[in-house]
Amino acid sequence: MPRSVNSVASRARRKKVLKQTKGNFLSRRNVWTVAKNTYEKGLTYAYRDRKNKKRNFRSLWIMRINAAARQHGMTYSQFMGKLNAQNVGLNRMVLADLAMNNPQAFEAVIKSVK
User: Fold this and answer.
1) How far is CA 63 from CA 6, 14, 32, 82, in A?
2) Which of 16, 63, 103, 105 is the most exposed place for a label (fewest CB within 10 A)?
3) 36-92 pLDDT per residue, tens
């Protein structure tokens, strides 16, 4: 009995990967082996950078809070220590947003913890 290969599914799988590599340069978009490697590497970078994005934003928020706190005579460390001691339930994202877009509200938070 002849061997049966599911070429329809194989071709569909290849087309799916080649569609994802559309826009790449030269053989990275249309040569199967190169495109597959490019696609897999891209997925690896995407997974890694979803984690790094969180790290980068946290770092940015800390810088913004520190800059705003120093304008009011406090360091970031002192400010966060006093916030935690008084159980203020504002996270870094909200504090950074207040520091950038609503300095009066941030100043009110500073005064409440001093």
Assistant:
1) 56, 46, 45, 18
2) 16
3) 999 999 999 999 999 999 999 999 999 999 999 999 999 999 999 999 999 988 999
- Residues sharing a CB contact under 8 Å with residue 36, sequence separation 6 or more, in sequence order: 17
Indicate the domain borders of the chain.
Answer: 26-113
A 10 A CB-CB count for 99 gives 23
pTM: predicted TM-score of the whole model, two decimal places: 0.79
Q: Note whether 72 and 98 are within 8 A (CB).
A: no
pLDDT bucket at 15, cuts 50 / 70 / 90: very high
Closest CA to 56 of 101, 92, 95, 100: 92
CA distance 71 to 109: 13
